[in-house]
Amino acid sequence: MNELNVKQQTFVDEYIKSGNAYQSAIKAGYSEKYAKARSHKLLENVGIKSAIDKRMEELKKEAIADQDEILRYLTSVIRGEITDQELIPIQVGRGEMEVEELEKRSDTNARTKAAELLGKRYRMWTDKVEAEVITPTFINDVPADD
């Protein structure tokens, strides 16, 4: 695949921000006449399309938590490593209040819920039942009528 030139790379960056091919072409340094008539052609360029697709996939990965991240988060909640902030109003004078910030560990309910979710993930709460199935055997020993 060919490397993109500076204008094309700028077009890719601007297009990812705005989704507007015309405006992106102008910001990338293409003339207004070219942008008006042919900006859609830039999106058909294999190199540009590939660069846009690749960057969009990277952005998606950055924005969405994967399985590992979720499992690490649940584990840190269980261990009390995640803290919540609570604002506590304190009266300092007549009609005057200050707010104190207090950090506290996740409450027991949150930790229990995280433990439940992790337990479900690892199928710790699944009861194993052994069942023996006896299949009846049918014997056709009835004499046929002549």
UniProtKB/TrEMBL annotation:
InterPro entries: SPP1-like_terminase, Terminase_Gp1_N_sf, Terminase_ssu
Pfam families the UniProt entry points to: Terminase_2 (PF03592)
Record key words, sorted: Viral genome packaging, Viral release from host cell
GO biological process terms on file: chromosome organization
Gene3D superfamilies per UniProt: 6.10.140.2160, Terminase, small subunit, N-terminal DNA-binding domain, HTH motif (1.10.10.1400)
Keyword field contains Transmembrane: no
Record-given protein name: Terminase small subunit
Organism: Staphylococcus hominis
Organism lineage string: Bacteria, Bacillati, Bacillota, Bacilli, Bacillales
